[in-house]
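pinging the channel bc i need a second pair of eyes. not urgent but kinda urgent?? the chain im working w is below, pasted from the shared doc
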Amino acid sequence: MQEPPSKLWFMSSKGASVSCRASGSPPPTVAWRTGDGSPVRNIPGLRQVLSNGTLLFPPFAGDRYRAAVHSTNYHCRASNTVGTIISRDVQTRGVVEQYWKLRVYDQYVLEGNVVVLTCIIPSFVKDFVSVTSWTQGHLNYYPSTQTDGRVQMVPTGELVVKDVRGTDAQLSFRCRAVHTLTGESYESEQPARIFVTDPRNPVPPRIPESDPLVRVQRGSAATLLCPAHGYPPPSVTWHHAEGDGKSPVSGTSSRVRVSGPILVIKATENSDSGTYRCFANNSAGVSSKEMQLEIVSPLSARVTPPNLVVDFGDRSSLTCVVAGGPITSVTWLKDGAPIRPSHRVRLSSPRVLELESVASEDVGVYQCRVEGIHSSALGTAVITLGDTLPEIHYRFIQQTMRTGPSVSLKCIASGNPTPSISWTLDGFPVTHSDRLVLGQYVTLRGDVISHVNISHIHVTDGGLYQCTATNSVGSISHAARLNVYGLPEVRPMGEVTAVAGEQLVLTCPVGGFPIHTITWQKGGKALPMSRRQEVHSNGSLVINNVQKTADAGDYSCTATTNTGHGSTQPVHIKVLVPPRIAPFSFRDNAAEGIRVQVSCTIEKGDLPITFSWFKDRNPLVSSGSHNVGGHRTSYYSPRQPSTALGGDTSRSSSSSSSSSSSSSSSTPSMGGYEHLPLEVRKLDEYSSLLVIPRLTAAHSGNYTCEATNPAKTATHEARLSVSVPPRWQAEPSDMSVLKGQKAVIPCQADGFPPPAIVWKKAHGERPGNYHDVQSTQRANLYDNGTLVLPLVTEDAQGFYLCEATNGIGAGLSKVIQLTVNAPPQFVEARANVSAGVDDNAVLTCPVAGDPPLSVTWHKDGIPLQPTTSYRFEERESSSGSNSWNSGSSGKGVTYELVIKSVTRGDGGEYVCTVNNNHGHDSRTISLYVQEPPSAPRSLHVSEKTSRSLHLVWLPSSDGNSPLTHYVLHTQRMHGVWQALEPEVRVDGSRSDVIVDGLIPATQYLFTLYAHNAIGASPPSEALQVTTEGEAPGGPPEDIKVTAASSKSLRITWSPPNADVQHGNIVAYYIGYRLAEIPNEQYKFVTVEVEGSPAGGVSPTECCSALVTELLPFTQYQVVLQAVNTHGAGPTSTEISTTTLQDVPSEAPAGLRCSPMTAQSLLVSWDPLPTALARGVLLGYRVLYTAIDHNNEKNRETTSTVSVSLRGLRPFTNYSLEVLSFTSVGEGPPSEPIRCATEEDVPGAPDGVKAAMAGPKSVVVSWRPPKNPNGQIVSYTITTRSRDGYVKKYVVRAPSTKHELSLDSRQGPLHIRVTAKTKIGEGSPTSPATVILQNVVPARITSWGEAVAVHWKEDVSLRCDAVGIPMSKRDWYRFEVPLRTQDDQRAATYHDGALVLRDVQRQDSANYTCRVSNQHGVDQITYSVLVQVPPSPPLVHATRTDATSITVAWRLSDDGGAPLLGLTLSYKRDYGEWQEETVPPTHTSHVLRGLTCGTHYQLYVTAYNKVGIGRPSDMVSAHTSGSVPRAGETEGAISANTTWAALSLSHWEDGGCVITHYSVAYRRTDEQRWVVVSERVEGTRPLELGGLDPGTVYVARVIAHNSAGTTTQIYPFTTAHQHGAGPAPGLITGGMSPLLTDIRVLLPVAASTLTLVAAAVAVCICVKRKPPQNSAQTETTNPTQIHTKDELKQREKYYATVRKNNSPHRDPAALERIPEYAEDIYPYATFQINNDQPPSLSRLQQPPPPRRGSQGHFQAYSYQDTLPVKECWKRDILRRNDKALPHSQGSHNESTYCRIGNRGRNPTPGPRSLKSESEEYDTFGSDSDTDPPASSRTESSNHLDHDRISVAVISNPTLSTTLQSLVHRQSPPLHSRVDPIQENGTKLLNDVRLPPPDRESVLRRGFQTLLSPSSSSRGSSYFSFTSKLEPPVGFSDNHELSETECDRDTRRKCQSAKERSGVSIHV
């Protein structure tokens, strides 16, 4: 069988298949079974078995997953007539695609310890996902078995970080994994961070819990982790339990590596399994953890022997040989079915199956099934029968016949060897005759078919027929009688031979039927005559223990019938004596070469006797004969059959096995032999002599003498054992082998007894003195004498003696020499040599190997020629005993390379390579030139407290000599620098030190020296540090706590006393907890303090806070702590206060109801728990209303937990709710329950009609009661005639019409109707009177009513009428005849009914049916109301805050049916739709729990009982809040030479909580950002370390909240190393470092010159352009069409922005925002207004500048910029006065120019005129008139919050001056943008104003410009004026270029420099 794979894992979307193929003769059939053996059936779409044996799993949907199909085990089953085999299990897993993600969790660890990060994979995909790597920023960590790295990913997927440092807290890690089935890669969404703490007190080791079982595949790497935590960091040791003891794991092996908490075993072996224990130890304690390593090897199984031939009845056994593991179970199968032990079948061990007395049912296929943890394996063997006893398959039956016809008797038998069948009749052989034919043949299957055919049957043919099947194993018989009717006739018997001493059974061969008696006689006397004789009823004679003298003679047999007819035949019995052999034997242990003879003599027995000899049961075949001394002598050659039967076939038999085992145990195998010299001599008739002329080992064996006479055969066996001295079969010889290889030395001898082989080894180098070689790991001795040395070492070389002895003769021995050829070998492949400068270095290469040896030297990979320099010298010396090499033979040489006067350049790696005839080896020597160490680098503060400093540094080169120690020099500033003693000495292995005992808030100066054995290093750069202050020493004062509401407390206090503040108070911690739980931890909230320059508060300020989200009506304990920049002070005394009451939080539970009467209910409920009351419970209210009556809810108030509701309607279903209330209000109601009142008598029917239907009949109809008060069971009609005759008729409900048959009475008839329930009969209706007469007027018996029907349904309006003649019926709609033939949806029927199909809303109307005849007229009216779903509500958002939106609506039409409710659907951008259900009575709803600062879309749908109405229009709303605001940049960064601290406390959240910050920095001359951390909380300053002194850096901070991100750039400069240069920190003034870079200056200068030239050219062109009239302007220029297309192209360059204060503009245009923030460029628009009074101008002056506000500013977006492309004459805009109503009459003294140019379209064509909204929006862009050209994205939404209005300059002269300054001092904008952009932000440095105006504008304007809420905080800065004047002074036909405009205005700026100031509104 070609077995299927053990696993079949596949994705549901792909499906899979598995094949099973088998071969055999005859060809087998293949079928699939499940794990429990059930046949696999086809399941459409899920599972199918193909005809070729393939099991197919098609792709399937997830909802069709079935565990019984897709997650189970299958096996294949192949069967034919020989047997059945099964395959191993196929573990099938169909995996449904599901959403999942990787997770990693933050870890908390003590500094210096080890932390393990684990990639968490969901359990349902864990088997299919493999962790591939970890990432940290730009670094990737892949699985490695090396243990020397500090950060390492182990093969099991964990990331191990050893020796955790404080800086590791800034790192974040993500894991990556791949799905092995889909190939998709995944990365954890959120990173994991390491939180590092620094304990002050010792912490005993603690080892986290983990799975103690580690299971790996053999040959792969095993990783054991022991991440112990403690302080001091614990040391970890490993031990491996072996047997009863344990041994330490050193990790010195190349396969085993140990690095503290990590134990890695490469290429695992089975011996590596076992128990491992790690011990973590430090000064605080010890901890241990035990792990079990289990090595899993692939399972394999085989059964020996694989093919077994067993003789019938013999014993056999099968052995299961198993490899791999671990093994969970071993089971045996036969033909695919489990084997159950029995008395014949038993398991001597789980792996050995034994069969006793093998029979035919034991033939078949046997398998041993080995189960492992995740797999299985099967071994197979076949048992077939060898020599088997014959078996009769077909038997003839007993028959009774008359003479004449023919008969056939048949037997079919089989066996091995093929049996022969013989026939007897009454014990005598059946012989052929003319009427009797015997036949026999063998079929192809080996069955023997034999038959006896008798034709024309006679009486003599009758008797007992027996067929006997015989082979060498035995015989089996079957007998049955053939009775033939007739007189008895005994057939002649002749002479019968009997064997003396045995039993004789003689049957009387008689034919005829029936036979009455059969008798026997001897000598005329009836038998029996003695006890040895018996005559049975069937006529057989039995003589026991036949005696020759007494029993020989003549006998007769007589058969008679009951009529006296008989027949007699005689028989002579001859008795023969069988032979008996006298015992004989051979001498014991006969020596080879002697002569041996033995005689076989017959003690008694009748002649003739023949003799035969056998050896080992094989006959001795004659090979020739001759006469010797008158005797005939024969030479015999026994032939032994070959035991190699082919393949692996074995043969088992009981007889042969015993003898062969005996032979094999005493006689060595000599192989097959021929012409073995043997002589057999017949001495006389009673004896035979066996002679062996010369005894050899081949003569050993069992000899049998067989004597045969006609009576019997006798045998006797004797054992001949020949003692044979040993002789070589494989003689050992000298051998040469390479060191390290395997040596196999054969030494095999045979003899009898089998010789013992012993190996010995000579001491020393000469043979003679030997010691025994024992079987060890280094030497293996096999049973056949072979010596195997698995790994030859040099000490294996020498002389070996192999000796074979068996006590016969002198034995054999041979001395051989084993020569070990040793290639060059170094014990240590690497070495390190250190030498000082100018010293001599000696590089030594001690090598062992056979001579001759040669050596070559290389340095750093380059061949070295020592003879070329006097500084190099080579030496060679003998290594003597070479003690450095264990096991060496002494052939060692030491090569030396001497380097004189070593210099630093001599350092490096030297390789000496030694060669000989057998190989080569190399040794690497690292030469380290030692010198004093260099100065320590980057001395900085890792942690600072008020009284201690943790200093960290980077050790530089150690000068190739280990650092011995560091010396730290300290000076303290106290007026002047003073030295402090003693110096601090630090061990050289450390790179940090904690300096304690310092004074708070004091400056210190530190220098550090490194020392090694050579000397001291230069000092490090000096580090100046100021110690921290301390936390406040006292709590706040005057604390008062009052209840503000049910869920909040108002807390007021005063700051602590100034003497204990220890710095500025920046915040307060308010702690609160439940008073009823005294041990509960406080929950703290932080109250930040604002107001003081440093964020603190003066002692006189009062503070207050509101603590919210508390439990109502609950007592709390409150404490306060004051917090300064150094920590929190002590807590205050607890103050207890109780919150106010609130409404109950839940409804009472257990609401139940039971009816009391028809008009009352008893309602009860469970008391409300006190905890849910949230106040003093005042009582309960029951809300109830009748269902289907649309009534308002009634209320019943009680203080108990039950109430009786009275005055209710009978038989009415009520909806009941209960709520509780306090003094504050009512709590929520409970879930409503329903309860019905009991039945009552009904009310009167709602009307009755009576009309004559004929002369003697009246039809009465009525309406059911309006108040049925129960189930109506019947109606009673009561009639009263004029003469007082009363008659009653009972009509069963629900019928409401009845026809009364009357007598011939005339006159009025009064009719009343009553209704009846099971309670009783109700009141009657008012009487209806009918006048009995001979005529029958037209009347309608149906009732008109109001009918409500759902739209698109059918409604039937009945109009039953009477009258003679038949009434005429007509239908009217609103009194207009209804023509049904014109309306396909309306139809009338013969019974008068009007049917309206598929009714619509317009079908609502009054429908009247009118009937008439000549005797009367009648009519009824139906009021039809068609109910439809509600109309769409009119929705708008009325209010928003950070997390909620209030939505209000108005519904114009409820569809004619009561409203059941409304559904409010909403979604955020890129989110999923969500729904909330609103009661029908509400007209507004508050959506809560929304995301801050997020855009939402929503709509409302209403529904009634008809259905759901159409949704309302989509409404957009935005929760309040914006992206974070950077705030002040002053003081954000403080820096020294190599370190900077970044404070994030100045950031404002914009109304949405800042979740985290991302921080990076770079040098200004580099492009790549260095990521400090992707996730910073911002609660404390962030440290930037490893900086270069005197270098300009840029820090980038990205703040994240739910509304988006904001990026802020902070340029700063580190201090120079020796104090020179500018002060470190944030760059607040001066020239940007970019302007000092020649790479920046050249492009800027070129761009500036180009811009100035262009502006001059434009102004000249505009000035020279002749004016055009208005008419010319209004005509369409042909180039305008081209301009239209050009402007469309410019859409992507110029952003469309939102305008302020423009009520006339198109609302749709307000939504058009640029696609990307990068497309927005700032333009400044300046308005010149001479009419502004000076006082107003002065009022609009910016405030005085503040220090430190100059420098770089970052602009994020520009919301209301006006990108004016040209300067326009005011006449152009005057023609559009209708579009500019606010600008009429204000054009005179204004000019309007654009400042700044993007530079992408230098020569635009003429433009068509636009309205003011278009002009001010895009100046030619088509975005306003082409809506599809603009789209909103997230970036454009982001711009809604970052609005920057334009700057307006109120003074025309200063406007011109400012323009010239901008153009003169600043390059074009596109060249001023910083090339490093992040999130679409750009560094703005466009406006340069002379101080102080520039400083004021930049600080007041652009700082506010950076804030998203700047427009709301101060309208006195950037804003539009109320009027925007068009430009004047320009021609319509010519556009000034920017250069011309700039040149024209520069003159005005120069003349107006000193006039009134600039007013910039922000």
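so The longest strand covers residues 285-304. and The mean pLDDT is 78. — does that match what u expected or am i reading it wrong
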